[in-house]
Design brief:
Helix content: 25-40%
Distance between the termini: 13 Å
Order of helices and strands: HEEHEHEHEHEEH
Largest sheet: 7 strands, mixed
Structural class: alpha/beta
Number of helices: 6
Number of strands: 7
Strand order of the largest sheet: 2-1-5-4-3-6-7
Shape: globular
Strand content: 15-25%
Length: 167
């Protein structure tokens, strides 16, 4: 229905399927289902790579992630790597407490194109119903280190992640 409307971003194909957990279980990473992992959560799509600029944002975002989830468990971050080297991707992921689209998965490129991400780091905030709340969240993360203004809504756009459940 919405795929004919040019201003609506449909992330169903890009976000449907397995996500790689940054959390380790018995020394290994686990695959989780996107629909289950993202249900009823605000989702921060975190576009980054293994570099000093991304590392600074990661430190701040980790703190906010812990604070928000300590109270409500309603935030998830999905790392969409811009790394071209698997070793750098693995190194980045080893320091992240959240989910990631697997390195070899073509959804990484697809979602970057859908959201027109050309520069990293970038964070796009999506509400539990799938509306893009804000495409420019990096500044909010830098300035609101306590997460008091979470989910940093700028303005709501038509649903994009709601289609995940239909795919």
């Amino acid at each position: 229905m919405f795929d004919r409307v040019p201003w609506v971003v449909n992330l169903a194909a890009a976000m449907h399927g397995p996500l790689l957990s940054g959390r380790k279980v018995d020394g290994s990473r686990v695959m989780v289902d996107a629909e289950d992992a993202l249900k009823n959560k605000y989702v921060a799509l975190f576009f980054g790579r293994h570099d000093e600029f991304t590392t600074d944002i990661v430190v701040k975002l980790k703190g906010i992630y812990r604070k928000v989830n300590a109270a409500e468990e309603n935030m998830e971050v999905v790392f969409v790597s811009n790394d071209t080297d698997r070793a750098k991707f693995e190194d980045s992921l080893s320091n992240l407490p959240w989910l990631a689209i697997p390195f070899e998965d073509g959804r990484r490129e697809e979602i970057r194109k859908l959201l027109k991400v050309v520069q990293v780091p970038k964070i796009v905030m999506v509400d539990p119903e799938g509306h893009v709340l804000n495409r420019q969240v990096v500044k909010s993360v830098i300035l609101d280190t306590e997460g008091k203004l979470f989910p940093w809504a700028k303005k709501a756009n038509p649903s994009c992640l709601a289609f995940i459940r239909q795919a």
